[in-house]
Amino acid sequence: MSHPTSEPELQNETPPFDPTKPSVPISYPIKTLEELESRSYFESFHYPFNKASVALQSGSSSLPNRRRLLVCHDMSGGYLDDKWIQGGTNPNSYSIWHWYLIDVFVYFSHNLVTLPPPCWTNTAHRHGVKVLGTFITEWDEGRVISDKLLSTKESAHMYAERLTELAVALGFDGWLINMEVKLDSGQIPNMKEFVNHLNQTMHSSVPGSLVIWYDSVTIHGKLDWQDQLNEMNKPFFDICDGIFVNYTWKENYPRLSAAVAGDRKFDVYMGVDVFGRNTYGGGQWNTNVALDVIKKGETSAAIFAPGWVYETQQRPNFQTAQSRWWDLVAKSWGILRNYPKVLPFYSNFDQGHGYHFSVDGAEISNDPWCNLSCQGFQPLLELVDSPTPDTIQTLVDVKEASYSGGGNITFKGTLEDNAFTTKLFHGELPLGDLPVHITYSVKSEGDSQLGISLQFSSTMNNSMSILLASEEINQFSSKFSKVITTRQLERPGNATGWVIQEGSIALNGYTLTEIHALCYRSKPKFNEQEPAHSPVKYFAVLGHITIKNSEKNSVFPPSSSWLVEGQFIKWTSSFQGSKTLSVKINWKLLDGTDIVFPNYNIYVKKLAKQVVGDHVGTLEEVQEYLGTSHVEAFYISDLAIPSETSSLKFVVQVCAADGTCQELDDSPTFSIDAKELMATTHILASPSAIASAIHGSVVEYLLVQQLLIVPEESLATAAKVAPPISG
């Protein structure tokens, strides 16, 4: 797995990256055994931001006893757009949205300890996919590292425990171990101790976790890729959860490996390099050739570097090429997982990047962005090669309007018949005594209408299809078991053009198996010149879909229930008059209740007093969306502050699993008196003035005017006025 790669961007940053200093939160690897042993990562300013916030759903702890698909992501050294935990600015960043084909996701780089950025763990877990980090030793430096790692049984155990601690703390599910170095035969016992102890500690700490061995060094210490499971690597396979077989195997190797593995044949992951370097079938657009052979040989598969589509800029564009490539995988391998499985189920079809960002139908930002943690449940959109204007094209169009986040499903083209239908989700959701409430948002043109149809099955092998539509539609009554007319919900004040529909279904004993979208016309026109099925132009956008047991929205704790703090406050004022503020905002419930919300939208309200002549007029308020957080903290870096600003109010908008968000006026806030802070930078006011300018508890702050810094004794005195909160 020795791929040429560039060093991560962090290496070239000036000044050198200091993880203990406040800065825009990023993900980064651990590069030395000394860092790993010292546990210095946990002292990093960035550590709390790197914790994954989405846990695997219940029932996902153990892998199914069937063929599985592992995907190993290796792209240009890793930590690219995905390193920006609070989001980047590239609307065309790389992402994966075919999670229904994947069982295990590995984040790979050529650093010693590759820690998956939390955005990958969050979106993978949301779709039921396990996430592994990578531990790799290679080249001469790797041999030196291995000598220290394996010097004693105790050292092997200690480093294994350090890796387990990291996985537990950051919320991912295990490790790929890749020892691409020659070892002395005397080191093999401790190598086995390392793997076995890592496997045991991971399993005891994270039920369902995985430790997978890469096919590299043999049981005799020789660096010799076997390309199959055999007696040279099986002793490592026997003490962990699986083996990732090197990708230069021959046609009969999957079958031979399955025979060696016995009843653990699906723990053998035959590697396929999408770049095609000596891989069976040639990879690239022939990746399915290798998958067909692996499937026939009855083992699992490990796809290496599917980002080939993105890195090599396959035509005509990434969205189309990505869907076309994964469609080859789907046709060869088959769909592996279904959702929805539990309630509430919510998707805004966001792929984790885009050109704007919306909340409840109102666009709150038109800046390009990327943040994989924002990715919603991804639909199973059927790929149509070379769509024509005479068909309905179905796609996630990040440039079209969004009801929530930056995604949607856009339907456009020509409606040939009375209706067009396409599958969105393949579910496995058992219904109970309570009815389920389905809500969805639509923006359309002309008489284009969009309904939702649902397929159900029962334990008695009965099936039922129900259509939710906004009006009585007699033309479909014979095609569905039941047609339910939805009721239109009151539209939020700023949700221009969006129509929100809701319908309820009670089917105790049935299981929801499929969700489809139905495109139709509200009032078909019939006349002598126009046949009943004449083609018409069609355009509609599906903004979101929610399925839950209650028709009421989530109840949020009132703003008074929250403690919101500011930390590491830094105010910079240049002699040219420009001013910036950096601050870390933390929040938690005052009663200590550990309520986990999936995300928080962060805003700042800048208030300025309008001055007319000698009179101070009304307050003018400017609201700005800063970003979305998936942990209970957010770092604002170098926020530009107009000189007339009198105060700043940071708003934390709490969002629930069903997609609803708290009203801004009811959301928790943190305020700073900007005028008083400005005064301290110009005249170095007393420490008590500095402290009183900050509303809330302050752990650490620094006031800077170019090279002018408040003396330490002033800060110490100010700390007595505004005592810090521990932690």
Automatic annotation (TrEMBL):
One of its GO terms (cellular component) is cytosol. Residues 556-673 form the Cytosolic endo-beta-N-acetylglucosaminidase C-terminal domain. Its main location: cytoplasm. It is an enzyme of class 3 (hydrolase). It catalyses: an N(4)-(oligosaccharide-(1->3)-[oligosaccharide-(1->6)]-beta-D-Man-(1->4)-beta-D-GlcNAc-(1->4)-alpha-D-GlcNAc)-L-asparaginyl-[protein] + H2O = an oligosaccharide-(1->3)-[oligosaccharide-(1->6)]-beta-D-Man-(1->4)-D-GlcNAc + N(4)-(N-acetyl-beta-D-glucosaminyl)-L-asparaginyl-[protein]. Residues 1-14 have a biased composition (Polar residues). It is found in: Cytoplasm, Cytosol. It comes from the Eukaryota. GO terms for molecular function: mannosyl-glycoprotein endo-beta-N-acetylglucosaminidase activity. InterPro entries: ENGase, ENGase_C, TIM_ENGase. Keywords: Cytoplasm, Glycosidase, Hydrolase. It holds the Pfam family Ig_ENGASE1_C. Residues 1-23 are annotated as: Disordered. This is mannosyl-glycoprotein endo-beta-N-acetylglucosaminidase. It comes from Fagus sylvatica (Beechnut).
